[in-house]
């Protein structure tokens, strides 16, 4: 088990940063880390994603693990790794990306939906999988697939908020991915970064209460 997977299983929340750039992105990330978030994913379809990943690796060194999200193929994986991404997350299953991660010592958490995809990803070397889209599939679906596949860590992504987060963990999620519920655009636009920190802290406190 890699150190990054250890961190995932301990902290249990991955913040998903999509579409934010520049100073507002920097301040938002600082707010989340200040609230206790320890894994931050910058999606590759965010403008300037590679620059952000590189900058945050330095800025948050020792405070948070910075990864790349929406890594769709091998080329994206190579670019993300070169920028300093500590782990790679995808909405899809690409075994070339998993193999690349294994070669580089990078955790790869691919997107899966069906039991067949989950087992394929695991056999290919993925340390954990991202079950997506959970907002559509529902907590009941997660509980059902966890029953026969409880040896595979699953990151539930989609539909996670303060009222539902407990139910995802009760259904067997090892961790959750959270985007807009942590990065409220109206708060960011208003410069209300303290509110982002307070909100992040609430999520972190719920997770800690479960352990």
Automatic annotation (TrEMBL):
Pfam families: Aldolase (PF01081). Coiled coil: none annotated. InterPro entries: Aldlse_KDPG_KHG, Aldolase_TIM. Pathway: Carbohydrate acid metabolism. CDD domains: KDPG_aldolase. It comes from the Bacteria. The keyword Lyase applies. Keywords: Carbohydrate metabolism, Lyase. One of its GO terms (molecular function) is lyase activity. Gene3D superfamilies: Aldolase class I (3.20.20.70). The keyword Lyase applies. Belongs to the KHG/KDPG aldolase family. Homotrimer. This is Entner-Doudoroff aldolase.
């Amino acid at each position: 088990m890699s150190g990054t997977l250890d961190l995932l299983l301990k902290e249990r929340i991955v913040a998903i940063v999509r579409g934010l750039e520049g100073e507002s992105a920097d301040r938002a990330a600082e707010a989340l880390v200040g609230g206790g978030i320890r894994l931050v994913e910058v999606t590759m379809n965010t403008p300037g994603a590679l620059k952000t990943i590189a900058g945050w690796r330095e800025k948050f060194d020792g405070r948070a693990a910075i990864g790349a999200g929406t890594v769709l193929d091998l080329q994206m994986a190579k670019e993300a790794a070169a920028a300093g991404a500590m782990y790679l997350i995808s909405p899809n299953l690409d075994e070339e990306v998993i193999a690349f991660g294994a070669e580089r010592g990078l955790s790869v958490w691919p997107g899966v939906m069906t039991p067949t995809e989950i087992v394929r990803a695991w056999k290919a070397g993925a340390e954990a999988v991202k079950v997506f889209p959970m907002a559509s599939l529902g907590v009941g679906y997660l509980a059902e697939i966890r029953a026969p596949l409880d040896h595979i860590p699953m990151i539930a992504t989609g539909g996670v908020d303060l009222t539902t987060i407990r139910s995802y963990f009760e259904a067997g999620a090892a961790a959750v991915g959270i985007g807009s519920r942590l990065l409220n655009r109206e708060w960011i636009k208003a410069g209300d970064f303290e509110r982002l920190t307070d909100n992040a802290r609430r999520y972190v406190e719920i997770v800690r209460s479960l352990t």
